[in-house]
């Protein structure tokens, strides 16, 4: 399974989906994870490099990020808005909110400590 992770440092799931400027992408098989690549993005909550004050859903901003994650089956993120989560569900990418260490993702149930 291919997954994407919102992380600032590759160690912990510590980024809100809307503020993430990178997604680490892994191939996961059982308990084994292999980093495929880090994909840089303009964060969903920004336009033209500037933060967006209103957090209304934007299909244009979402599409930019979605294109980077289309080959993933699951997204692990610290937090995500309801509309982006619904859009990921529609395109078949499951969203798991968590704050675990990246190496603990294979057993993650979202009840991280």
UniProtKB/TrEMBL annotation:
Dinitrogenase iron-molybdenum cofactor biosynthesis domain boundaries: 10-96
Signal peptide span: none
Pfam families reported in the protein's UniProt record: Nitro_FeMo-Co
The protein, known as: Dinitrogenase iron-molybdenum cofactor biosynthesis protein
Source organism, top-level taxon: Bacteria
SUPFAM superfamilies in the record: Nitrogenase accessory factor-like (SSF53146)
């Amino acid at each position: 399974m291919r997954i994407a992770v919102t992380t600032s440092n590759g160690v912990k799931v510590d980024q809100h989906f809307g503020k993430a400027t990178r997604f680490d992408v892994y191939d996961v098989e059982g308990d084994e994870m292999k980093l495929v690549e880090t994909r840089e993005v303009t964060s969903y909550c920004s336009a033209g490099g500037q933060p967006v004050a209103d957090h209304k859903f934007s299909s244009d901003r979402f599409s930019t990020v979605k294109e980077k994650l289309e080959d993933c089956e699951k997204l692990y993120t610290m937090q995500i808005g309801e509309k982006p989560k619904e859009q990921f569900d529609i395109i078949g990418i499951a969203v798991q909110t968590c704050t675990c260490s990246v190496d603990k993702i294979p057993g993650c149930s979202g009840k991280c400590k």
